[in-house]
Amino acid sequence: MASVGVWVDAGSRFELPGTNGTAHFLEHMAFKGTERRPTANALEVEIEDMGARLNAYTSREQTTFFADVQGRDVPAALDVLSDILQHPRFPQQGIQRERGVILREMEEVQGMMEEVIFDHLHTAAFRDHPLGDTILGPTENIKSISKKDLQQYISTHYTCPRMVVSASGAVDHDEVVDQVRKLFTGFSTDPTTADQLVEANPAIFTGSEVRVEHAEMPLAHIAIAFKGSSWTDPSSIPLMVTQSILGSWNRSIGVGNCSGSALARGISNGELAENLMAFNTNYRDTGLFGIYTGAPPDALHDLSRLIMEEFRRLAFRVSETEVARARNQDHASLWAAVSENNGRQMLTYGRVMPFLELFARIDAVDCDTVMKTAKEFIIDKANDGSPSYDEYGNKDHDEFIYKEFADFSDSDNENAEMMIIEEELEKQEEHVLNFKGSIKGKRAISWDRIARAKLLYKDYFKPDPTYDEGFFQRHFRMS
């Protein structure tokens, strides 16, 4: 078997407000016939006769068209892919039909809470930027997109510098290269790259929140995200490992008590949620890192506190056992989609990263790397500004969510608060003076924890002439 595909650096972030949804609409129209294959039925019969699978998907930055075929049918699959991308017919009747299909798809998506929550999350994180728009686009755009819009989108964005043909499995590399050179000749050679477009209109992460209330829903669906890394950021792989440490879990599948994820075990044992999914979404210039969960309203207080404590723990206490487990999980997942990874890497890195190099980068991530990365992307970023989070559904206890997610210092957990104190002490240049300003006014801090902080960071305090034993008594209530 073989997988062949065409990856295009063209997604919803490259659309204008009035054309948002065009990339996805174009994906739907790609299989509706070409000049050589005039009907959708003719194309479907050809694919079915090969026993192949032809599909496509659109994301915020890329659109992908691919075929899974037997090795002997790779040339035929490449011919089909080149034909649908270079010679689409866009019949008016087909456009009208797909308009209805997409509108029904939008209705279905509104019932998929995970899709809804991530659309809201992007809107909250990237306000007034195309990266915050939905992939499907608004209803009014879907009703007005025309054949001219589709043709204009292809001529503008489907250009040679922004396209990659990738093949994996039972393929002959030289034969594929020769065929691509012969078949893919009708695209524009406009030298503008996706990187140049992104640089001209970068996405700015905005700490904010979106709340949508539906009292009739049994669960509250919540996502909290910190500003993540771009694809090429050196921190992208440590964040990928950190995501695997946080893990995913669904009560309907079970195994919570046996999960390698400490967070999943805590949620399962406490019966705090129905599902959990850590995510690490990368884009060309930014990213989103965080957790999505669905939970009953009466569990939100304990759930939000547990999630925040786990975020804090990642910055200070991570075992080599859980890091090794996460690395192994990442190894396995990367083997599963070779062709997809190759295509994406060519678009984002400009080259295919050999598995040996990629695995070496993953294996170089240890406890210290994870904790350093968590401090950089979670603790420090939260001190600079609120993370972006979204809440959807039944949320009678939403004040707990705001309290726990918006204020990292507000916790009655002794160890969690101690970690925040230690982090403040570690990061300040003018140790006592800055520490006084950042912690003053917070809840009571006990003497033993202060003593531990002073002992741990004694080298930071000794050189400071302003330090004296009465400092803590003057600026903190003692418990």
UniProtKB/TrEMBL annotation:
GO terms for molecular function: metal ion binding; metalloendopeptidase activity. SUPFAM superfamilies: LuxS/MPP-like metallohydrolase. This is Putative mitochondrial-processing peptidase subunit beta. Pfam families: Peptidase_M16, Peptidase_M16_C. Belongs to the peptidase M16 family. Residues 2-138 form the Peptidase M16 N-terminal domain. It comes from the Eukaryota. Residues 144-329 form the Peptidase M16 C-terminal domain. GO terms for cellular component: mitochondrion. Gene3D superfamilies: Metalloenzyme, LuxS/M16 peptidase-like. One of its GO terms (biological process) is proteolysis.
